[in-house]
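Appendix B. Chain record.
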Amino acid sequence: MPAPTSCVSTLFGLMILEHKSFPKKTAFTYRIEDEVLKVTYEKFFEDVLLLSRAFKAKKITKGAKVLLLSGNRYDWIVTDMALMSLGAVSVPRGSDTPNEELAFIVHHADCDFLIFETEALYRHHLDLVQELAHIKGIFVIGGEKLHNLFGKAYSYGELLKDRCISPEDMEQFFELEEQISPDDVLTLLYTSGTTGMPKGVVLTHRNICHNIRVLPDQIRLTGDDLWLSILPSWHIFERTSEYLSLSRGSSIVYSTLRTFAADLEEYRPTLVATVPRIWESIYAKIQTGLKKQNPQKLKQFNLLVKISALFRYHFRFLRKHLPCFEKMGWFRRGCLSLRSIFIISALFPFYLVARNRLSAVQKKLGGRLRVAISGGGALPPFLEEWLDAVGIRITNAYGMTECSPGIAGRGLQCPVIGTLGPPFPETELRIVNEQGEILLPGQEGEVQVRGEQVTPGYYDNEEANQIAFTEDGFFRTGDLGKMTISGELVLTGRSKEIIVLSSGENINPTRIEGALGLFPFVEDAVLVGQDKKGLGALIVPNIEKLKEYVLEKFGMPSHTDEHLLTDEEIQEKIRKEFNKELEPEKGFKPYERLHKITFLEQEFRLGEELTNTLKKKRHVIENKYREIINKLLK
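Structure tokens predicted for this chain:
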């Protein structure tokens, strides 16, 4: 039986409850080199207690802000829980965060303490650390000996030398729960902003506990479930998934990109929560593998997928499980239903064969996968259809860091494929036009949301808060969408500027576009790549300056304007020059490099691609050049 988490109002209270309910169950499985380690809920509790005691001895107190710079590992969630037990505010970030961005976060968040994943990472940022005279303590997860007489740095090995736990320790640890309230700030998560520097999203215990309260039923989560974890723990999607697992006494296996395919077969998970890029990778791997075996085998496989997809489409039509934005007349529906009945009848024996043959894909994923959760970006329609056709139940979810993250999702109770499902329980969602008027089903507008999961605001950023919230308390997501007549959400684009790659990374385009604008021939640049594997750029050039640049830089004369704008060799050489300005040394991340570029023949015009204040209408540009973008980043 699951623990009664509905009565838990803080995440620390959740951990105590799970320790009492499932002490001997395995909570986590992870590797250190070739050794596989398993951690019970009781051992997890003890690890958190010991680290909490050590942090308390080093003066980490309630309200202290602690930067946590680390990748995905078991020690991350131990650190997270130890900090929240003391009422400290974690400020997590990935270990690949550029120094400039890290410096901004540390100063803006007023961090008191720093935690680094490894000694090498600590040394990498040593120049920054030495500038931070106000920092009270520095801790390094990996390594054994780091502290010197006058230093502030300690390794976890030094902090945790004493691993004895007395009854008094236990009593004091349990008493910490009384000092934490639902509205205490749990974490500050910095997400990309439109000014080039990230915004600090404030999340409280109440915010995340909303997700923990309402999401398990969406996937019928139980203590028998096994999760395979691959996303970085500091990402709110992965972080909340791990909290969900703890809330029902489930078990988590930490995987990596390198071992993910093998871990699927070895551990046979029942649940996987990941981003569209992973599903794209699985799709590509299967296609490539079959083609290498025998091209004819690939053709047969794809034919079986088409048969399965067509059968399931018409079966869903009969059951009214397809997105519908307006009521269909009885005569038309009757005629289409007869057509669907005929197709289903004709395909039925072939569908049985297809279902049997395609089950091999499910076996490659372990054979027990009952729910595959996709978030952190929109799942391409073709991929959702393909996964459904091979028999994998995808729960396509929609969320944001500002919403802890859950907003809506196609949980197991929602059969309408091609949608993001209805809003999650205890969540108000509306679609509005530019005047703030609520729109009818089928009409496109901005998605706005209100509920306990929504952030109270951005840290020390009143200007951003004024923009983000309506007068009646709804959060402006910046996404465009519409509702079906049965209440499911379908996203249609983005009105705000942040780009989310299929791998889940959030990218602020303005910094990159600003760097491209430094080139003399660039009149305007628009970064593209929403839900794609990588970034591309649409470049509006000054033709004459582009001719000069190409001739001087590459010694390549251009015969005509058309040749200049379409020559692939020229485009590739310029792309490489662009990427020289997007190096990590200049504050950019590896995934912010350009994969492709193309030149546009027409400049952006006022009232069409540009607003009256000359701001780019990104969704207008993306719609206008959709075909070019898809070819560019196929």
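Further analysis of this model is presented in Appendix C.
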